[in-house]
Write a structure and sequence with these properties.
elongated; 180 residues; 10 helices; mainly alpha
Length: 180
């Protein structure tokens, strides 16, 4: 049947890609085989994973971010895995490409999927700081202060909030409450 022929070809292209990459140190050849596999199986998790690995090794950050998002959109992917893939894409967009706007949009998606995921707050804080968006950063810190149970982290958040209020929002009285 056509489906089993395609599955066989996809497996062959995957094996050729691995050989090209591992035995021949030929990432371009591996990429070519993976593109062929993808034409036959556009949403195959193994093909997408191999592409992600290759794009990362080659420093193809835009392509890596796109593949990570695609992997996260696979319906069979467990929620925790989807969240991790989206967070990884956020970090690539921020650290490798400086694409704050796209990273921000992905963070919002992560917040919808997993509202209490702490890494999202860390990434959002980085974005808001880089963009000097002090109001949203203050809101984010308030949220984190409200839910933090660890005394050391809570103290650090209060110091961060106090410094933000003092240095960027010209509110020394409010800042003082966080330094007490």
């Amino acid at each position: 049947s056509r489906q089993s022929d395609d599955e066989g070809r996809v497996a062959l292209y995957l094996e050729l890609a691995r050989l090209a990459q591992e035995q021949l140190q030929n990432p371009r050849g591996a990429a070519s085989h993976l593109r062929n596999a993808r034409k036959l199986a556009t949403r195959d998790p193994e093909v997408l994973q191999e592409l992600a690995t290759l794009h990362e090794e080659l420093g193809q950050w835009r392509e890596l971010a796109a593949i990570l998002v695609e992997q996260a959109e696979l319906p069979e992917a467990p929620l925790a895995h989807r969240v991790n893939l989206l967070l990884r894409a956020c970090r690539v967009l921020l650290s490798q490409l400086g694409r704050d706007e796209e990273a921000l949009a992905l963070c919002q998606r992560v917040r919808e999927l997993a509202p209490s995921e702490p890494q999202t707050s860390t990434i959002l804080a980085e974005i808001y700081s880089r963009r000097e968006e002090w109001g949203p950063l203050a809101g984010l810190l308030r949220e984190r202060i409200a839910v933090e149970s660890d005394p050391q982290r809570l103290a650090r958040l209060h110091v961060d909030m106090g410094q933000l209020l003092l240095e960027h929002l010209a509110s020394p009285e409010a800042a003082a409450t966080h330094f007490e």
